[in-house]
Write a structure and sequence with these properties.
Blueprint: H1 6-22, H2 31-44, E1 50-54, E2 61-62, H3 65-68, E3 75-80, E4 83-86, E5 89-92, E6 97-98, E7 113-116, H4 118-125, H5 140-155
Parallel strand pairs: 2-7
Antiparallel strand pairs: 1-3, 1-7, 3-4, 4-5, 5-6
Helix pairs in contact: 1-5, 2-4, 2-5
Length: 159
C-alpha cells in the first residue's frame, strides 16, 4: 500500500465534494454506502484507508452488524493518512475541522472514532431501514461509479 500525497488528497476531496453536490442527501443516509465505496476504490488504487464511524462509543473496531447496534453512530467517513474524507471534502485534526472552511462539522473528537470492518459495513448497508430514509438508495450504483472515477482521477486508474 502506498501513501497518499497532500496534492492527491486535495484533488480527491474536490472530486468527492462534486459527488456530494450531485447526489441529494448523501450524508443523510448514504454515508455508509459512500464510505464503503471510497474505501474499496482506494484499496484498488493501493491506498490504505479505514472506515471511521463518528459515534459516542469510541475507540473500537466494529467487526459485525451486532457491534454497530448500540454504537449510536452519527456519520461514517474514511481515514486516509491522518485525514478524514466524506462527500463534503477533507477534515484534519481531532475535531474533524473542515480544511476548506475551517469549521467543525461534528462535535465528536476524532480520537472517539470507531473503525468499521468492511464486512460489517457491507451487511449494514443492506439493511435499508437502519439508515436515514432521506437518501435515495436507487443512487447506490451511481455513487459507487462516481467514487471510483474520483479515486481514479486523483490517483490514476488502477486498471
Amino acid at each position: 500500500m502506498k501513501k497518499a500525497s497532500q496534492k492527491e488528497i486535495a484533488l480527491l476531496a474536490k472530486r468527492l465534494r462534486a459527488i456530494g453536490k450531485k447526489i441529494p442527501n448523501i450524508n443523510y443516509g448514504g454515508c455508509g454506502v459512500f464510505a464503503y465505496a471510497l474505501h474499496a476504490a482506494l484499496a484498488k488504487s493501493g491506498i490504505k484507508s479505514a472506515i471511521a464511524i463518528v459515534s459516542r462509543k469510541g475507540n473500537g473496531v466494529i467487526r459485525s452488524v451486532n457491534e454497530l447496534d448500540g454504537a449510536h453512530f452519527m456519520h461514517m467517513i474514511v481515514r486516509v493518512d491522518g485525514k478524514y474524507l466524506d462527500s463534503d471534502g477533507v477534515y484534519a485534526g481531532n475535531t474533524l475541522t473542515a480544511v476548506s472552511n475551517s469549521r467543525a462539522k461534528y462535535g465528536w473528537m476524532a480520537d472517539k472514532l470507531d473503525v468499521a470492518h468492511p464486512k460489517a459495513l457491507t451487511a449494514m448497508n443492506k439493511l435499508a431501514d437502519e439508515w436515514n430514509p432521506r437518501f435515495d438508495r436507487t443512487n447506490i450504483r451511481i455513487v459507487k461509479k462516481m467514487v471510483r472515477a474520483a479515486v481514479d482521477s486523483a490517483f490514476g486508474d488502477a486498471n
